[in-house]
Amino acid sequence: MRFRDRRQAGRELAGRLRTRQDEGALPDPVVLALPRGGVAVAQEVARALDAPLDVLVVRKVGAPHHEEFGVGAMAGDGVPLFDADALRRLGLDEADLAPVVERERGELRRRERLYRADRPAPDLRGRTVIVVDDGLATGSTARAALRSLRRQEPARVVLAVPVCAPEGARLMRAEADEVVCLHEPAAFMAVGQWYDDFGQLTDEDVLAALHQRQG
Fold first, then answer.
1. CA 10, CA 49: separation in Å to the nearest integer?
2. N or C: which end of the chain has fewer CB within 10 A?
């Protein structure tokens, strides 16, 4: 299974979630996208479920001088969640990552202010929260997102993605009440390999999607 782009993936994912909604499994839903890539997928999901759409900003914590190699992630006001095995292999401890964490925390706050503007964060207490991304690899950013959400006392947390690595999905099933994934290919290397068009989204794309849904 391949997807033409994030919107087509979102429509297919929305179909699966609509079935779950019709079965009564998704009462009082709110859709939270992991920006930037998850927003185009989540927009289709929110439309199909007639649910509000907002964002949950998550930032990867990369290794010093090798930022593309993620060793942790953080969301909201939560402390970073680190990959202990990755730190051990690199000979690092959490103190070594303090400058990286500070920088990423600043970017997280910048994006939250930009995307939300004067809007308050949605009240998630007692609601079904559907966290949407364009794919799931290791699950490090999704885990940070889900643990941040738990502190807000939702009734139910669902992680929904079009494609996922089997191991990542297995790990996330211990964090979410339900994981909805359309495709779990055994030969998973990267999320982008399952899309024909996997171009990067911009802040302007995120703002346009939020404005369209809320308008």
1. 12
2. C
CA distance 40 to 34: 10
pTM above 0.85, yes or no: yes
Q: At what angle do helices 203-214 and 38-49 cross, to 10 degrees?
A: 10
Choose among 39, 125, 111: nearest CA to 74. Answer: 111
Element (H, E) at 102: helix 98-116
| DSSP tally for the chain: helices H, then strands E | 7, 8
Quote the percentage of the chain above a pLDDT of 90.
Answer: 84
Burial of residue 61, with CB atoms counted within 10 A of its CB: 0-12 exposed, 13-18 middle, 19 or more buried: buried
- Backbone dihedral angles phi then psi of residue 12, each to the nearest 5 degrees: -70, -40
Poorest-pLDDT segment among 13-17, 135-139, 195-199: 135-139
Q: What span, in angstroms and rounded, lies between the C-alpha atoms of 190 and 162?
A: 13
